[in-house]
Amino acid sequence: MSLLNPDYRSGADYAFLVSRLPPDIQRMHAMGIRNVTLIGFDPTSCVYFWRSIADLAMQKTPAELMGQTATARQLRFYKWIVRGRNDADMGMQLTGHGGTDAARQAASLLPGEEKRGCGHCGWAPAQKEVYSYCAGCVIESQGRRISCMYYCSRKCQEDHWPTHKTFCTTRKKVVRAAHLIQKLMYAIEAAGAQRQVESLEVRDGVTHLHEVPQEELVLRGGPILNPVAQGNASQEAYHAALTGQTCNEIVIVGRQLLNLLIDPYCRHMEVITIVPRNAVNPLGILNASSKLNKECYMMIGAHKVIRLHLASGETLLLDISGAQYGWREPVAPWDKWCRHRAAHVNHANAVHVSDTIENKQRMLASYEQIRGERLRRQMAQRIQSLLSTEAAQRKLPSVLALLGLPGISYNVFEQHVVQAAQQACLQISQSGRTSRRGL
Ligand SMILES: [Zn+2]
Ligand SMILES: [Zn+2]
């Protein structure tokens, strides 16, 4: 297969793309080899190449994307991907014009719960409004019920309880734990990110984050970790900035929290790689002055999530860093989430949550990054002791018992511990800066 589109064989676009080819392939081009088979090439090299095409596509005006040449078609296709591979944006592939923001937003929402019969007797009232549902185990996303147990009457709900109880209480605790962990990870990222954000704006369907290049950070001798302030950014853009490229962090820095709050309800947890779709305003991390990594659109590449096999028999998705795709729910039914959010699920690559990813990451990381990771681990540890204190103050037997608190008390606890975590993390990030100044 030809790596470069035949239409690219001349002109500025061609020169641009050749300059971005992975070094091995560039050498082959220099030798006049034009047809390269991708088999046997390191897939990450290909990702760099795709990123270059994506970058080119994003630089084109809509007028330049029109027409039926192979180049125009290819660039439109990449622009569609970069903007989120969104169902409402499909027209972009034909005309170069995308869907409205509202349509893209709507298409990105997980579908609501399908109309189903009573969870106990199976009777299905004609109107959905007649149903009541179990408030214990409902999973919501952006104000919509995406999964719940319906009942036709109070009696049916009561009669079903002995059967439903285990499923319900397990799910309720896992859903609470997932939301809590997401907020705590946001606290860590907000206080101590491995990047320094220069600006953040939503433009052309993408949340553009300009960062100070890593090389420059090292040269400046700046702090290892940087707080990320919300500034004028919307909540969505801010969370996208916090979660950009952090999908491994949940099993590295967040692992203690996973083990503490989620693992006890699971038979096992796996990390699974997916190719995202139906994103809305996905993140693009851009830094014009870096030689290594000029642009990195989150849609070019894969996303890692966790599949939870609960002891109750249910399979749930856990996605702490979905905000980089404009997704907000940390937990959802696995199958439903995959149908809507994944263009491809790489089940073959599933790995158990263990040290593997951590060790791999550490092999690739710089000395600075490892020092940063150490501080971030301290933050996670401090959060763990905050949770223990909350449990002790309420005379609860364990941290897990916090997840079973009745509604209002739970909300009070959550708000309190998240605030305390934000302060503690900032303090640790600050102490890292001070100690460094003394060096
Ligand atoms: Zn019923
Ligand atoms: Zn329930």
Which key terms come to mind for this protein?
single chain; 439 residues; alpha+beta; 5-stranded antiparallel sheet; 4-stranded mixed sheet; 15 helices; 46% helix; globular; binds zinc ion
Write up what this structure looks like.
The longest helix is centred in the middle third of the chain and has 38 residues, at 154-191. By secondary structure, the protein is an alpha+beta fold. Residues 37-41 have low confidence and may be disordered. The chain has a five-stranded antiparallel sheet with strand order 12-11-10-7-13. Strands 5-6-8-9 form a four-stranded mixed sheet. Among the domains are: 6-103, no CATH class; 171-364, no CATH class. It has 15 helices and 13 strands. One zinc ion binds at residues 134, 136-137, 149, 164, 168. One zinc ion is lined by residues 134, 136-137, 149, 164, 168.
Dominant shape: globular
Mean pLDDT: 87
Order of helical and strand elements: HHHHHHEEEEHEEHHHHEEEEEEHEHHH
Please report the number of helical segments: 15
Q: What structural category do the secondary elements indicate?
A: alpha+beta
How would you write the strand order of the largest sheet?
Answer: 12-11-10-7-13
Strand content: 15-25%
Cα gyration radius (Å): 24 Å
Amount of helix: 40-55%
Domain MYND-type: 118-168
Protein name: MYND-type domain-containing protein
Keywords: Metal-binding, Zinc, Zinc-finger
Organism: Microdochium trichocladiopsis
